[in-house]
Design goal:
single chain
Length: 216
């Protein structure tokens, strides 16, 4: 199943063609700042889709792609739909792991999580965040990280803010009755949640009582 809104991807063709081209054009260098201490990571399709596996290997100043999985330090089994979601930034490494939608067949699953900034640089061309560099508006002035937008603000300004900071606050998007509906439906999901159902997250208070903290 393809990710809605995007063209379907071929696992092999993407790695051989599109991604290899992007790496050669500079995305490998873009990802390099997130690769310190990381070891090689491989993806294997787990649902019988075409293609076997591909390994991402850090090298000095970038990444190389290798067909196969034999030499990978960490091997992740992932289905076609989840892999496409990861490529298109619809899915995240922690989300896929917590939802049991991927399996770590070898190595350390945490390596998959630690690879995510580098994967974002490779897949979307997203620069690695450098706290020493200031956040800037399109005109070069300092960006206010506390800024909130309205639905009528310029899309280009909101897009730039989102790409610069990684978040975006848009006020008054929903009417009061819509918010009330959300609240009712959230309460229903809360009432239905059961620990261990894989649809909810639970935590413990300081006194040891288990409480629901998220419904997915």
């Amino acid at each position: 199943m393809a990710v809605t809104g995007f063209k379907a991807l071929s696992f092999d063709a993407f790695h051989e063609g599109e991604l290899a081209t992007k790496i050669a054009a500079g995305r490998g260098t873009l990802a390099a700042n997130a690769l310190g201490g990381l070891r090689s990571l491989a993806f294997r399709l787990s649902d019988g889709s075409e293609g076997a596996a591909w390994t991402y290997r850090p090298i000095d100043g970038g990444v190389v792609l290798e067909r196969g999985e034999a030499s990978a330090d960490t091997l992740i089994a992932i289905d076609q739909e989840s892999w496409e979601g990861l490529v298109h930034d619809y899915e995240s490494a922690p989300g896929l792991l917590y939802g049991s939608r991927v399996r770590c067949l070898r190595g350390d699953a945490l390596q998959f999580v630690l690879w995510e900034p580098a994967l974002r640089a490779l897949y979307q061309g997203r620069p690695i965040y450098d706290p020493s560099k200031p956040l800037l508006e399109r005109d070069g002035t300092a960006l206010d990280p506390t800024r909130a937008f309205s639905a009528n603000d310029a899309v280009d300004e909101m897009r730039h803010f989102l790409r610069s900071t990684g978040y975006l606050v848009v006020r008054a998007v929903f009417a009061a009755d819509e918010v009330a509906t959300f609240a009712r439906e959230a309460a229903e999901l809360r009432a239905e949640a059961v620990k261990g159902d894989r649809l909810s997250w639970w935590s413990k208070r300081a006194d040891g009582e288990e409480i629901l903290c998220r419904v997915t």
